[in-house]
Batch of 2 targets.
Target 1
Amino acid sequence: KRLNAITSFTLEKFKTDLMKKNLAPASVKNILAAIRQLYNKAILWGMYDGPNPVKGVKMPTLQNERQRFLFFEEAALLMETLKANRRHKNVHDMALLALHCGLRASEIFHLKGRDLDFNHGFITIANPKNKTTRHAYMTEAVREMLKERKPDNPDDPVFRDSKGNPLKDVSNAFQRVVDRLKFNEGVKDAQHKVVFHTLRHTFASWLALQGESLLTIKEMMGHK
């Protein structure tokens, strides 16, 4: 179809067809967002003169907010189990950062030596998801762990695989340990399953339980 032949109604039907194929709402939203960006670029470059039809499309409602968080006893058991196996050291240390500092997995992957300030006890998180820089504060356990990991070259990543390459994924070992501990036994709803991101959610939940303000939690999580 020509760009000017695609209407909001066309895209509503397209959206319905995608949903019938059992695509997740987030996937459908990403596809529509890509189309919206295509039209915006075409307008910017003078290749299309007309309205952006995506503006008239109701975006799918996302219901993927994590509800589950770990109780103190569960978190202690998880961390002890990960620590007991030397092969799980990367997973354990990443889990510690997510649980004690609220870091996203992507933020952990991008940590470099220069981001660690042991004098003031904080971690600089540059270029995170919302494009702003924030600081996370080291607990004593995190400080000791990072001291062991700090690379000699400040531009080198903190987390590397056995070949010295930057880590890009959380090892499947994390989920295997979670399954072994039966944290997800009988749980059907994905929102209530324990995954790596649950640790970040746990960090925020523990702050709330201890009476921290929503503003403080928002800033420490790096939310807008």
Note: The first helix runs from residue 8 to 20.
Target 2
Amino acid sequence: MESYKFLLDVALILLSTKVLGLITQKLQLPQVVGALLAGLLFGPAVLNIIQPTEFLNSLSEIGVIVIMFGAGMSTDIKELKQAGTSGFLVALVGVLVPLGLGTLLGLLFAPGESDPSLILQHVFIGTILTATSVSITVETLKEIGKLNTKVGNTILAAALIDDVLGLVVLTIVTSLAGDTVNVGLVLVKILLFFVFVAVMAFVGVKLFTWYENRFQKNLHRFPLLAFVLCLVMAFVAEEVFGVADIIGAFAAGVIVANTPRGAYIESKFQPLSYLLLAPVFFASIGLKVELPEMSWQILVFAVLLVLVAIFSKLIGCGLGAKVCGFDWKESVQVGLGMACRGEVALIVANRGASMGLMPEAYFGPVIIMVVCCAVFTPIALKLAFKGRRGTPETEPASSLVERYEKAGELAAMTEEEAEQAVSGKTK
């Protein structure tokens, strides 16, 4: 019977994320917060009813891939190109400021700060803070109807570049700790990844166009082919080029969005994401919280780490946005959107601990920082956009409940009805 416990775990996750999501919605909070709290409440940190398992970890990984794939499909490529320059500057400053402030915080709390051999440990604290987890931000922006806007596209562009810059920083720091990493090779792999994406974009659009002309009546095959493309690009990004799999998934989504049936494919992925994968992913962040016994010095470090994590992105990315011509309110929105940390920070921390670059006592504060940022970001984003009138290119915010219902309606439609529905929407 124990082998089938994962069925009850998934059922409890889906029910709890739904209930707490509705409660947080009533409190005028993003429903993502409810999903995060569900994982925290039923996980090892509080009730210890659900424990992280390999199955849940794998399912949550697919969840974040599908979330980013959906973000790519809903991204306006023209707006993303226009946000490219501002996104680069926002990401650059948003990496340098957390790196510097995190290193300074490590210097202040290191037990042997006079030992030159510990300098990499201090720098590594800053390296952890460079990572931005854009998936929660994407979900929040979608919920409030602000994803496909100037601010939303700048955050997406900056997050993509941020991941690459963070990877470069991580590579340099780890290469200094050992002789197993070739910095030049990693930089070449990153460049080749973007070449790979360009080639896949050209070939993918051509193939989808050819397939549509050849098999016009087999629309149900398009979502399957698109999902295969998503998973393959995510795998190749991570395993071949050393870039995060979510970047490959996002790139696949952008490619699919530019195919003839992009809107239809996106409509068919809504049930998969909102009914299963997205709730499991967001709850899994809370499930990972299992705090060890911490001294008061470590607790103080944890509080300061949270503050530095939030304000370093707010200041760095906000100033970068201001320099690019955003007004102060938009700059704050960009900074808050980049403040979230998630699975990337945990992965970086795990790697640093395994290489001796981070003391084990610091892992508890890192978990606290990730959870606090994950809860803080959607709340702060919703407050930052509150009272701001929508521009013509934005849509009114819709609740997650409404999108659940809409997803179910689309899934129940015939292929012809669904095609007519999405075609009418995009005209």
Note: The two ends are 52 Å apart (CA to CA).
